[in-house]
Design brief:
The complex is a heterodimer of chains A (about 190) and B (about 220).
Chain A lengths: L13 H10 L2 E12 L2 E12 L2 E7 L5 E7 L4 E5 L2 E5 L2 H9 L5 H7 L9 E4 L5 E5 L9 E5 L2 E4 L5 E4 L2 E6 L8 E11 L1
Antiparallel strand pairs in A: 1-2, 1-13, 2-3, 3-4, 4-5, 5-6, 7-8, 8-9, 9-12, 10-11, 12-13
Chain B lengths: L1 H33 L3 E11 L5 E12 L3 E8 L3 E5 L3 E6 L4 E6 H7 L10 H4 L2 E7 L2 E2 L14 E7 L6 E8 L5 E8 L4 E10 L18 E4 L2
Parallel strand pairs in B: 6-13
Antiparallel strand pairs in B: 1-2, 1-12, 2-3, 3-4, 4-5, 5-6, 7-8, 7-9, 9-10, 10-11, 11-12
Chain lengths: ~190, ~220
């Protein structure tokens, strides 16, 4: 397996770290994502390219066959899966329509970087990086996010920033929705 | 009218001729595969999208024995295991702790690699085969091709539309070993496996095509 990246040896200044992570608006990650909802589970290879909110999210199986391609711009979202193409103005309703899963896309673009949003409650690792996070959301089911394998990633300007290489998002069971879990293992960040 | 009739009869002979080339190429591939009773090699896999961006990379081992047995195991970037034991295909997914089981006949449509170990004529008839020299499609009949071309490639295309894989290309080196294979999918994504440490005669460990499932894994049996 790939060796897990080394986390920080000395304590990190949280405000500086979060400011730097917030600046990162163009990124690409390659890794693996697992979905589990009740007994249904699948894991696929993931390539996710984000450019300030316009993003391309692609899932490939072990043979190398593209199974899902989601392209989102501020005008519209297009999802190709099983040889069919679906589109909608927004990604969330599109993903729900095709997969039945409620995925908080906009918050996710911050959470995957280890950046809590306004009102999210979070805890820190002993080195001062975000360890777990509980999403603040009125009238919707909140998500618990837990981070691991932080590694230092080069930014364009010779600086580097700590980014998580494993992320688990969990939404607890409710009367009408089974427990939902997304697990992301990141092999490579490119900024 | 008569003129229409004659032109249609010309087409049928053309088709018949095309069929015969297809049959002779198919039998030439099948004979090449049939003397590959066993195959085991390490592979490096690279998957690129239509714009040639790398989408996935992996390393592992592919083991095949005829008929109908295959083991695809990756060790990098993480562990994945697929075993076709002749009846069922077992997909062991350690990342999500789940094993998915499919009957082997259903699996072939989306995974023509399983075809490489099939000796079943009916299965082979579902694919059309063309021969390529060093990647240049030729429609000359099998006999005219001189045999010292370095890489002998065959393109396998499902006759039935709608499978995930559009074309599977197999390339044999001058030692007649399967040197690489690549798969083109409906999104124009290409997955290429290059083989090394190729073995075609080796003792088969007993458990090569069996799977032991950790208790914590969920089994999703779709047979």
């Amino acid at each position: 397996c790939t060796t897990a990246p080394k986390g920080p040896q000395t304590a990190v200044n949280l405000t500086a770290q979060l400011e730097k992570v917030a600046e990162v608006s163009t990124w690409q990650m390659r890794g693996k994502i697992a979905f589990r909802q009740g007994k249904d589970a699948a894991s696929l290879n993931l390539v996710w390219k984000n450019d300030s909110g316009d993003f391309d999210f692609r899932l490939t199986n072990f043979l190398g066959v593209s199974l899902v391609k989601l392209t989102v711009t501020d005008e519209k979202s297009v999802l190709e899966a099983d040889g069919e193409t679906f589109s909608n103005a927004l990604p969330e309703p599109l993903i729900y329509q095709v997969t039945g899963m409620v995925i908080p896309v906009a918050p996710l673009l911050s959470w995957v970087k280890g950046l809590p949003l306004e009102g999210d409650k979070f805890t820190l690792t002993e080195k001062g990086l975000v360890d777990t996070l509980e999403s603040y959301c009125k009238g919707c089911r909140n998500w618990q996010v837990s981070y691991g394998n932080y590694g230092s990633v080069l930014m364009g300007n010779e600086e580097s920033v700590w980014l998580p290489h494993s992320i688990t998002l969990t939404q607890n069971e409710t009367p009408d929705m089974p427990k939902t879990q997304l697990k992301i293992k990141i092999y490579q960040w490119t900024l | 009218s008569a003129e229409l009739a004659t032109s249609s009869s010309v087409d049928t002979t053309a088709i018949a001729q095309k069929e015969s080339i297809n049959d002779s190429v198919s039998s030439s591939l099948q004979s090449r595969l049939s003397n590959m009773k066993q195959f085991r090699a390490n592979f490096t896999q690279t998957v690129v999208d239509a714009q040639q961006n790398v989408v996935h990379e992996a390393q592992g081992t592919l083991t095949m024995t005829r008929p109908n047995k295959l083991r695809w195991e990756t060790t990098f970037p993480d562990e994945t295991l697929l075993v076709a034991d002749g009846d069922a295909v077992w997909n062991v997914d350690t990342f999500v702790e789940q094993v998915t089981v499919l009957s082997q006949d259903n699996a072939i449509k989306d995974n023509p690699i399983v075809l490489l170990t099939s000796t079943d004529e009916a299965t082979w008839s579902k694919f059309s085969i063309s021969q390529m020299n060093n990647g240049v499609p030729t429609n000359t009949s099998a006999s005219e091709i001189n045999n010292d071309t370095v890489m002998q490639s065959y393109q396998i295309t499902p006759k039935e539309e709608g499978g995930q894989i559009v074309t599977l290309t197999l390339s044999f080196n001058q030692d007649n070993e399967l040197a690489s294979l690549n798969m083109l999918d409906a999104q124009q994504q290409v997955s290429t496996l290059v083989f090394n440490n190729i073995e075609t005669r080796f003792p088969i460990p007993a458990d090569t095509f069996s799977v032991d499932i950790p208790d914590s894994f969920i089994v999703d049996d779709q047979r």
